[in-house]
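Q: How would the structure tokens look for this protein?
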Amino acid sequence: MNLVKTLYILPGVLLGFSLHEFAHAQTAVWLGDDTPKLQGRLSISPLVHIDIIGFLMIILAGFGWAKPVEINPYNFKKPKRDDILVSIAGPLANLFIAIFFLLLMKILYHAPNFLPYSLYETIMNIFDYTVWINIVLFVFNLIPIPPLDGSHILFDILDLKDKPFYYEFYDKGRILLFILIITDLIDKIIGPPIHMIYLALENLFF
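A: Here is the predicted structure in token form.
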């Protein structure tokens, strides 16, 4: 990524990572697991959630990660249901961010004369990248490959988390995910739904 594009993307990445992990943590606490609270993860501050290596990878390679929130499902009243709720909370937070910033863009779209054009264009670009990157995070994290949220949701629904297959697949999931990323196959998988959601939301608000 060039420097300008990186600067446009970083606010959306920091916000997306932070609220994604905060949503996991807060939902877990609401459902009875204080593990995220004890580990200091009940915060929207990027300093709490950002993984240094993952953050540098965003700048250098356009792909990175945050520190995952740890939970103890045995603290939940209904472990399978609550694990699904905790898992889906993160991606839904990203979708909410995308919708919120589209609303802000809608408001600014009708008031460009109140700002210098260069400032207006910069703000709109940052907001647009924030929308885009959070839709990417929403779709990407729902892929049913460990350790992504989608795998927790799928295996809880199918009641496979106690099966030996789950642990074997979990161990190999990171390797599979890495292969999909470096071969760009991941773009072919998540690209169409990302574009579809982006265009659907854009048409809804504009």
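Residues 3-205 form one domain.

The mean pLDDT is 91.

Upvote if useful.
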